Amino acid sequence: MSNRDKTIYYLFLITIASTSLYVVFRNLPPIIGSFRFFWAPATLLIVLLSKPDIYFNKPLINVLGFGILVLGALQYTFWQYMTDWTRNVLLEHFYNLSVFTVISTFLISERKFYLWGKISKLGFFFVLITLIGTNIGLNMDPLVVRNSAGGLSPVQEQVAKMTGSAGYGYAQAFVLLIPILVYYIKFRKLFFFSRRILVIVLILVLITLFRAQVFGNVLVALAILILSFGGSKRGKTIFSTDCIFFHYIYSKNNIRRLFPLFEWLF
How far apart are CA 163 and CA 148, in angstroms? Predict the structure, then answer.
């Protein structure tokens, strides 16, 4: 690996860690531990200096178009009554999406797939560490994830900082692990861990989603789990069944009947 590749590799890796390995970066000094104000700008700058034409590639143009549409046109037409909180969230999503699109576009255009593989492997470990830390945090305060959407109390802030527990949005992203884990489990594909360990990780993901008490995530996770194990050949049938089942739960408010079960389990 050349010195240039090493610099890019470590920068990209730390940038991804700053958004996924909370137990470390929440305990660093404010600037050094900040994705928004330090690592993301550093990534954008190094790519600009190394390969500026990345910013004119189609993926970045598409992201820019998304920003113009959502933060520009819609904000002043159909969405003119949106709150400042919603506006800030949309801006943050656009910023985050831009940074990671730059990273992926750079690695693809430079054909640095081996770097992407190394970063992805360590990124998976970062998420796994945060998954474990989240369960430790939920043992200390069952609402540390749920309340992060509206603001944590000082005690909850200390719990989140000490354990590196996931926030509300991060916990939602745990759902994305389900189809990946099911694929490697179901088809016995080679992965970082053995099939047995992957089953344990999948169970841990589901337990964490239940314990986080964000039941919209639970319903989505169950639907994705059923679709993933069902496979593409029966996808339409399973999807239709999922829609009917979860519509029934929602319309009849039957989810409340499941609460005692959740409390008994967790």
Answer: 14
Distance CA 175, CA 263 (A): 21
Structure tokens at 234: 């029966």
Start-to-end CA span in the chain (Å): 47
Distance CA 221, CA 114 (A): 31
Supply the pTM of this predicted model: 0.81
Is residue 145 within 8 A of residue 35, CB to CB? The reply is: no
Which amino acid is located at 105 in the chain? Answer: T
Alpha helices by DSSP H, listed for the chain, are 3-20, 22-25, 40-50, 58-67, 84-109, 113-140, 154-163, 168-173, 177-186, 195-211, 215-230, 235-251, 255-265
Alpha helices in 164-234 (DSSP H): 168-173, 177-186, 195-211, 215-230
Contact 201, 128 (CB under 8 A): yes
Tens-digit pLDDT string for the chain (266 aa): 677 778 888 999 999 999 999 999 999 888 898 999 999 999 999 999 988 898 898 889 999 888 888 887 777 777 777 777 778 888 888 899 999 999 999 998 888 888 888 898 899 999 999 999 999 999 998 888 888 877 788 898 899 989 999 888 888 888 888 888 888 888 887 777 888 898 999 999 989 988 887 777 777 777 777 777 776 555 555 555 555 555 554 554 444 444 444 444 44
